[in-house]
Amino acid sequence: MTSVITRPSSNYDRLPEDVRSVLSDRLQNTRLETLTARPAVAPPADREPPKRAQRPPQAAAPRSSSSQPPAAQRQPQPTASQRDVVVALENISKCYPKGNQALIDVNLQMHKGDFLFITGPSGAGKSTLLKLLYGQERPTSGEVVIEGTPIGRLRGNRLAKIRRRIGVVFQDYKLIPRRTVAENVAFVLWAQGYSRKEIHRRLWPTLKMVGLQDKSEAFPNELSGGEQQRVSIARAVVGTPPLLLADEPTGNLDPENALQVIKILKKLNSIGITVVVTTHNEQLVRVSNHPVVQLKDCQLRHLRK
């Protein structure tokens, strides 16, 4: 340690004795003040870990009277219009393996109780569109949504469950030749596991609605084309599906029977069933006041809303 007291030089010795005494006293006092100003070195001891700075307490958020999940966990509730959407086609395109393009960027939305005509020339993609709706075909791109459920990737029982909510009327009827009218209609309910009592309860009102209660024991080859189509309609709606798809239901019928079939479809629509009808019969479309869309050049456009 370097001393704060300067060694006396030769000039210091020449000073008078009383002056040297005063200077010496002052130098000693300066040394003592310097030493006392330095902090004392404490003996080593175990160091305590530094204390973390405590955050100021925050006011507790007021609790709601009813417990609700955090906002991040809440599921958005669909609006009334979203809940009523039965069919939604979202940017649907369909291309077959050989490169034949059937549909390009088709968008369509239908609500509960709608009635829609889909028109277009033969080969325009009308049947393809219906097959997409009940899951027989799958889109190349886009999404088919039935009652809020995307069906494009459904298989097996999950797809079968959706199909039970869809009635399909085919142009060529697709009746079982060796079964009576009543058996053809009841077959759908039997396949879905309904009891004999429930099948009987549903069967007869349905046959009466299509005007075939007196033909219940007849076989398909004993019926006219219009009667066979009415059996097909009865079979499609006996399970009370919310959605009915009719693929050219009047294509093989004379004008009188065609009009009768359309009247039945309108009656079904009046009780809340959503109906989609494909047709190239312009006369039927003109006499109807329902919305019309047209498929042309693989695209869908609205003709009448």
Structure explained in plain terms:
- This protein has 305 residues and is of the alpha/beta class.
- The protein has a domain at 81-165 and 284-305: P-loop containing nucleotide triphosphate hydrolases (Rossmann fold).
- It has 10 helices and 10 strands.
- It has helices at 10-13, 17-37, 80-83, 126-133, 156-163, 181-191, 196-209, 225-237, 255-270, 282-286; strands spanning 85-95, 101-111, 115-119, 141-146, 149-150, 166-169, 243-247, 274-278, 292-296, 299-304.
- It has a 6-stranded mixed sheet, sandwiched between helices. Strands 2-1-4-5 form a 4-stranded antiparallel sheet.
- A hairpin with a 2-residue loop joins strand 4 (141-146) and strand 5 (149-150).
- Helix 6 packs across helix 7 (196-209) and helix 6 (181-191) runs parallel beside helix 8 (225-237).
- The radius of gyration is 45 Å and the shape is elongated.
- Residues 1-10, 40-45 and 64-69 have low confidence and may be disordered.
List keywords for this structure.
305 residues; alpha/beta; Rossmann fold; six-stranded mixed beta sheet; four-stranded antiparallel beta sheet; 10 strands; elongated
Write the layout of secondary structure elements.
Elements: H1 10-13, H2 17-37, H3 80-83, E1 85-95, E2 101-111, E3 115-119, H4 126-133, E4 141-146, E5 149-150, H5 156-163, E6 166-169, H6 181-191, H7 196-209, H8 225-237, E7 243-247, H9 255-270, E8 274-278, H10 282-286, E9 292-296, E10 299-304
Parallel strand pairs: 3-8, 3-9, 6-7, 7-8
Antiparallel strand pairs: 1-2, 1-4, 4-5, 9-10
Helix pairs in contact: 6-7, 6-8, 8-9
